[in-house]
Amino acid sequence: MCGIVGARHDWLVENRLDPERALRDAVATMAWRGPDGQGVVRAGAWWLGCARLAIGPARSRQPVVRLGGRFVGVMNGAITNARELWRHFLPGLEGRHDLPNDAWLPVLAVERGKHEILAQLRGHHAFAVADTQTGELFTGNDEYGEKPWFEWVSNQAGRPTLVAFASTPVALRKVGAPAPPPEHWLAEWFRFGWRPREVPQMTDKPTAEWRARQERRERSPEAPGVRTALLTSVARCIDTRVPVALALSGGLDSSCLAVAVHAHGKHVPAYQLRAAGAPAAERDAAQAIAARTQLDLRRVDVDREVADALPFLTECAGLPLGDPSILAMHALARAAAADGIRVLLSGEGADELFLGYRRYRALARLPRTTWLRALAPQWSMRYGARMLRAMTAPDPATALLAVTPPAFGAEVLAPELAAQGCWRDEALHPVLQSQDRVLAARDADLRGYLRFDLLPKVDVACMAAGIEARAPFLEGDCAAFGQTRDALGKRPLRAAFANDLPPEVLRLPKTGFALPLDRWFRGDLPWLDLLREPTTCQRRHLRPGGIARAIDRHRSGKADLGHALYLLVAYETWLRSPEGNTDSVPTGPGGGP
């Protein structure tokens, strides 16, 4: 787990940057991702740098340079099937207890022309390998985007050319990439808490590995059962020399991981977080499954103090953080890190792969009654109101993704933002609308919500605590079991582990990793002071008096706007960070500041 960065020498010179100094400055901004060592090298036409978190061999370094100096590589993350892949290069090595640095595998694959090996990499990773003789750069990342990959493409000699990449947007700026104007994403960010149409430097093109895995999946109908697939994936994820733990919410996904860990004879700690005042059902379920699987349950109890981490996490990410559960995840990761844990298993991806979200089930039976649109509640975020808005929306899936009500845009945000189509629930992904709407929503989530919200949240929250997060559901072959509506409600997963799970887990409804924001914003919360400051209230992305009206409506109980108020706090926090700091945010014709 690291932070990596790279830039073309000619690009750096063109931008009047000292190449080595720019790379060292970029690496220094990622020290929170890799406190165990920093390195920068020139690799022909490229400069490569890495800030390393030592999960693998203690004495290894990055960038890695092949003997003779022709091939140089950097990698962020881990290759969980490294043990089986080493036989292609050093037969017999796969049987050793300790393996070399995973970063060598893509370098050796490129050096020996075994590019098919790159398509076999499992786990969570982003890598770059430079050929110093030809100037070529070979890049890749994991199938679902668990490891961040920001890049900048510039027009060079009349054609689009990759000129820089990094694990964070902050590092990318240090090597000359311009900051994209917020009008690309601000309206959607305040509607959904993330950016469905990502900023230009974050690409979402299928990588060679992704295409190869899709083809392999289509060619292999005889996949192992879901239980076998998950147990095999967990075995690869816990094959490490450092202490491992499990993030155990008490829900179905993490409970299945607990069963898998126990099946391999491991007795690792399991961390369960509960916010003050939250219902006890998840804690009870976690205690039941921990007892059954003989895991050491460690309780993490938090209150409003988790809010104190928002400025730090925002500065790490270099982006506004629209998912408040990042605060809970960071608190849990910090507790694990304090106990010496370095790898944390989590259940990300299961809801998408097994159609687990409640909104998928709603889409499966939701009637279309667009003529009732005028009657749909505009302020409420309760389940019934959200369903009615979805029934009458141009695109029900888009309506169900929203975390703020339509009236929030109209009453709080500047007119140019409130006029954007996202507030009318227009389709975010028109190309998907001809498909089965349940499966289309799941595909959109895999390409968007998972990639640009959930996984970045876990990555930043854990890396900022010195923890490597691993998601076994995404590492293995579980996607093959959620290809039809028959998987709704995680039926394949429930069936595979039904005999292993206690009743407390099986009857627990889907709750998510949430904080009680509605209650917090009705109490004495320092964030309210931030929202009332003149500097905040006078931002040009807001309507005059908009914040005050939203606070009054929420605190009077007329609407539950906890998440909406959090978004105002999160964006203001980013504006006051080094990356977002500005005296004013002018609003342009594109619909945002």
Architecture of the largest domain in CATH?
3-Layer(aba) Sandwich
Examine the coordinates and then state which fold CATH places here, giving the name of the CATH topology of the largest domain: Rossmann fold
**Strand tally:** 14
Strand order of the largest sheet: 2-3-1-9-8
Q: In one word, what is the shape?
A: globular
Total number of helices: 29
Helix/strand class: alpha/beta
Note poorly predicted spans.
198-211, 216-222, 583-593
How many domains is the backbone divided into?
2
**Termini separation:** 34 Å
The CATH superfamily of the largest domain appears as HUPs
What integer is the average pLDDT? 89
Helical content stands at 25-40%
DSSP strand content: 5-15%
Features:
single chain; 40% helix; alpha/beta; 5-stranded parallel β-sheet; 5-stranded antiparallel β-sheet; 593 residues
Structure description:
By secondary structure, the chain is an alpha/beta fold. The chain has two domains: 2-178, 4-Layer Sandwich (Glutamine Phosphoribosylpyrophosphate, subunit 1, domain 1), CATH 3.60.20; 182-203 and 223-512, HUPs (Rossmann fold, 3-Layer(aba) Sandwich), CATH 3.40.50. The strands form three sheets. It has a five-stranded antiparallel sheet. Strands 12-11-10-13-14 form a five-stranded parallel sheet, sandwiched between helices. Helix 10 (252-263) runs parallel beside helix 11 (281-293) and helix 13 (325-338) runs parallel beside helix 21 (449-463). The longest helix is centred in the C-terminal third of the chain and has 15 residues, at 449-463. The protein is globular.
